[in-house]
Amino acid sequence: AQPHLRKVCLSMDSETADGLASFLSPPSHVHPFSSLQILTLTVPYIRTCTTLLQILDNCRLFSICFEIRHRPLGDEVRCLFETLRQQCARFTLHVFQLVQNGFCTCESKPDPHPTPEYTISLPTFQSALHFSNMRFFMVDLPLYGWLSDEHLHEIADAWPGLVDFTFLQIEKTHMRSPATWQGIAYIVCRCSQLITLNVTFDTTQSYITSPLELPKGLRPNNVFRFLDYIDSVLPEDPYLFALSLFTIAPRIASLQGTGWDPDPDAPLTHDPYAFTKQVDTILCKLRCEHIGEEYILDVYGRHEIIGEHYFAIVLRQCGSSQSELTRAIIRLQF
Cα(165)–Cα(283) distance, rounded to whole angstroms? Predict the structure, then answer.
């Protein structure tokens, strides 16, 4: 037993990982790692992560980072989360990360036609919703999975203190995500500390064009900064996309993603870079119109509009007159 051990970082090859099961013992009242808070593990297969959690036996982990090298099955991912719920204290876990690193074999390249054994969704990691203090959650594996609006509602209600959420980042599939702006609005506004969201959704459905259309009792999230909408359905006109995003998160700082096409072998119908630039321009105008001088004159706003170098030049020209400064900045941008 190591009752005073607080942090562990392990990397195992296949032979060492296979021998880990020999340390499993019947449940006891003696907890070998009762002070362990941070666990980082790099192994070939996800089953080793599950085995290690069983060995830890009623731990009080704050942060878990599992990095695997081979593509897991959906059932293996579900088993990991079920074991996590059984073995880890409910209120201590704040950070969970499950990723596959870049040193993977061709088996990890996903088929554009999803099969059930390589598909996951909320039921796969539902056991993790038990940990009500979750702040950072990432599952980034070469698997397929989509979240619906109902799933996003359930996640937000279980983890209201969420700061960063990532669920898969797979491109080029035949499946259209069922999530819409309604689900995005709920998780972003319900989780008032949320800064980063990486999720696939249909950006052409259920636009949010006014704060009155936000889910009941919720307000725009002014701390939300980063959205990755990889492999999401995109509209022809970027204005409604930008307006919905502005309504939900007026201070969004960065967005990136790719469009979706029913034929994964066909070229993208949208230039993702051009689309993002168009949305950025519209967002900047919306902020100038609706937030006004508070946005134009603060550090973030002036950097987005003209950059710090040009701001310094304009400041010297306009002196202390805020109204002249505001008009000058707007002229430079628009």
Answer: 23
Reported as a single tens digit per residue, the pLDDT across 209-264 is 999 999 999 999 999 999 998 888 888 889 999 999 999 999 998 898 776 666 66
Q: Is 175 left (phi over 0), alpha (psi -120 to 50) or beta?
A: beta
Position of tokens 């010297």? 316
Q: Which two tokens stand for residue 158?
A: 């279980």
Q: Which residues contact 317 (CB under 8 A, 6 or more apart)?
A: 328
Phi and psi of 227, rounded to 5°?
-125, 125
What pTM, to 2 d.p., does this model score? 0.83
| DSSP secondary structure of 193-260 | T--EEE---BTTSS---SGGGSPTT----SS--EEE-TTBB--SSHHHHHHHHHHH-TT--EEE--B-
Handedness of CA 149, 194, 59, 120 (dihedral sign): positive
Distance CA 216, CA 185 (A): 11
Token output for 286: 């919306």
